[in-house]
Amino acid sequence: MEEAKKGKSAGPDDLLAELFLNLGKKAKLTLLHFYNVIWNASVSSDWRKFVIIPILKPLKPTDHPSSYRPISLTNGYCKLMERIVTNQLNYFFEAYKKISDLGTKEIQLNKQDHFSYLGATFDNRLSWRGHAEGNTKKGEKKLGLLKRLAGVTWGSSDVLSTFCKSYARPVFDYGGELLATASKICGDIIDRIQNKAFRLIPSAFSSTPIAALEI
């Protein structure tokens, strides 16, 4: 609970981190009992709801949806429980380096800073930076083919635009729901690879402002 960040906006339940930080001992025990009850039952469907706030990117036109970066605000009760579960799992894996495999042998658990599942990269802080960098690395390979097409005589901007939307952009945007809760740095990483594609399609200079290409 002490790890809760102050000064952050509330989610759909309108509960700020300051409320939990100022709870008394009895209130904290009651809250812990509440978490234990729902752990053995089910999580409220309201906890799966969140508020999305669109934040305008610097120097972007206000009348285009892609000019905004979504920020997700989740329920205070949900965020606190996620932090409790994460800390307990970290403690378990730190304290018990080995676990029994069906009682027959021991398996050494190696701590990893990140892992991939279904194309999404998770890190131990859930910052999603590794996922953004992975999308960028895959996107660079896609842009390599786009550059070759841009050099042939039939590679008009319409053809390149269609090819980029169907071949390269799905790689840039993969797991976009995860990046909705990421920091601005992760958004900037994705923006840079997308901006390369935007400049490549009309054969624009690398110094051409993106705002001019969106007109």
TrEMBL record:
Q: Indicate what this protein is called per its UniProt record.
A: Reverse transcriptase
> What InterPro entries does the annotation carry?
RdDP_mobile_element
List the source organism.
Answer: Trichonephila inaurata madagascariensis
> What does the record give as the organism's lineage?
Eukaryota, Metazoa, Ecdysozoa, Arthropoda, Chelicerata
Question: What PANTHER family is this protein classified in?
Answer: ENDO/EXONUCLEASE/PHOSPHATASE DOMAIN-CONTAINING PROTEIN, ENDONUCLEASE_EXONUCLEASE_PHOSPHATASE DOMAIN-CONTAINING PROTEIN
Name of encoding gene: AVEN_151571_1
